[in-house]
Amino acid sequence: MTKTLTTISLIICSLIGFAQADTVSRILTNKEVDSVFSEKTKKELDIQYPIFRVYEYNDKSGRHFLVLTENDYKDGDQPKNDTIQGFNVTEANGELKTEWTLFDFTLKQGNDNSEEHLIWFWTKYVSLNDLDNDGLVDPIVIYGTSGINGTDDGRIKILTYYKGAKRAIRHQNGVLDFQRNTQVDSMFYELPLTVQEHVKTLIKKMMDNDHAIFPHGWEEAMKNKELKFDEN
After folding, report:
1. Following CA atoms 181, 219, 176, 228 in sequence, which dihedral angle do they give, to the nearest 10 degrees?
2. Quick one: pLDDT at residue 22?
């Protein structure tokens, strides 16, 4: 009986420990978005474009919102989206405060390989997890552009926010081998290995889903902490 109680106690302690380390995130409904981000609040936070999606996440530092906005419109019958802006907003004492923002747009002259038609957040790959088990969420936001051949010749940007500091991986897709190249911020390699490995997992998912074409040998290049690599 004592042995059984001890086993049960260990299981409960394990579950409690997991719950304490775990963080919670969710997507707000349209009604919740309108309630939290009223016209007055959007003006105060300088949110200029239509809100596409809002994530709420909680960690030991409090309640936060990741607000993704896109300047979507129609050019004749064609949907267009030329600008994106993201906001990481923290709630403190009932007030909302912007911690950091991101901003990007389609290149007017196109990228190295193609014209750019659209830019948008790739929410399939948004990550709001505590990756190093310190009780704080480590947001990862990914977005990209599309060109003449869709995402095959667009750009991709992977942004990792660790303790408020941004690390970026900038990638150029390309149909032809010589068109593909990747640039990694040197500070990316200072991230905990668990965070780096999670980013690599997201890269693999993008490749599996035919959203990204990374240069052959990219994993070995990142293992060697290379800042730039392409198809050799």
Report:
1. 20
2. 57
